[in-house]
Amino acid sequence: MQRASLERLNEARRTRRAVVLLTDLGNAREEVVIEGEKVPAGFEEPIAAALQSGKSGLVESHGRSYFLNVHLPSARIIVIGAVHISQALAGMAAIAGFPIRIIDPRTAFATAERFAGVDLVADWPEDVLKSDPLDAYTALVAVTHDPKIDDFPLGQALKAGCFYVGALGSRKTHAKRVERLAAAGFDDAAIARIAAPIGLNIGASSPAEIAVAILAQIIRALRKRDVMSPAGDAR
C-alpha cells in the first residue's frame, strides 16, 4: 500500500469516517474514497453498496477488475435515559453487534443493579458528550420524556449528522419538542430527521416490543443511509 493511501486510511479511522480503498488489480493503482466525498466516475453504485453493507469485494468497471476494501467505523448506540426500554434495548443491541452506552443523570434510575454489565453513565449528557462526542456512526435514542435531559443531546445529534436520531413521546410531546428546537435555531429539514414517535410502526406496546421497534429502525437507518451525501452539521 502506498504511504499516502495509508495516511488517509488512518486519518479516516481516527476520525470515525467510512472509507474505501479502490485498487486496480491490473496495475495496482490505488485511490482512497471517503464517505461523503467525490466518487470516481463509474463506481458510484458499487462504492455506495460497499459503504452501506460494510462488505469488501471485487467489481468490474471500464473493462478492468478492481478490489474494494471497505473500512467502516463501529456503529454505536447512545441512549439518553435509563428506563425499562433501555434495559431491553441494551441486551438486544449486544446481540445485534452494536456497542451501547446509556446516559442518565437521575441516579435513582441509572444504577448498576438495573443495568448489570452495561456501559452506564450517571451524569448529564452535556458533560458526557464533551469527552465522547457524537458522530455520523452514532445512533442517538432519547427516551426520558424530560426536555431538560433530552433536548441537548438531540440538538448535538442533529449537528453531528448522526445516522439515526429518535425520541420517545406522543405527537403532542414531539410538537412541543419541535418548537423548542426551532427556537434554538434548527431548521425544518434538520428537525424532520428525528424519528418521533420512535421506532418502526409495528404496534409495539411493551418496553421490550418498543425496543425491538427502535433497534429495527436503527438497523434500517444504518443500512439504507445516503452514503453519497456529505455528513456533518445538519443545523
UniProtKB/TrEMBL annotation:
In terms of superkingdom, the source organism counts as Bacteria
User: Boundaries of each XdhC Rossmann domain copy?
Assistant: 77-218
One protein family per Pfam: XdhC_C
Q: Do you know which InterPro entries this protein is assigned to?
A: MoCofactor_Util/Proc, XdhC_Rossmann_dom
**Under what name is this protein listed?**
XdhC family protein
Species:
Ferirhizobium litorale
Organism lineage string: Bacteria, Pseudomonadati, Pseudomonadota, Alphaproteobacteria, Hyphomicrobiales
